[in-house]
Amino acid sequence: MTDLSTVLNALRRPKILIRAARCGVADYRRERDLKRILRQSRVAAPGQAIGSLLAEETRLEATRAAGDATYSIQRHVAVLTALLAEARLLPPPVVSGA
Question: 44-53 long-range CB contacts below 8 Å, 24 or more apart?
């Protein structure tokens, strides 16, 4: 299984989207924002939330790349912000070594 940092580092998005998301992390409040972003009534565990956020971000990126008029840059930044913030909540990967 690929670890999350590898997945996040592999994302190729416009720099302005990433910068905006990084700025938003400071104001991110899990209880308030995650339910709204994922459109759920309760807050999911970080691992579950990340899976849902990655799926939504992939959908938004496809919409953006296609030039679809339904694309929402505000939603894309919110999802990327949540993804970055949720990734910080996960424990670091265990490195097995010799």
Answer: 46/86, 46/89, 46/90, 47/90, 49/82, 49/86, 50/4, 50/83, 50/86, 50/87, 50/90, 53/79, 53/82, 53/83, 53/86
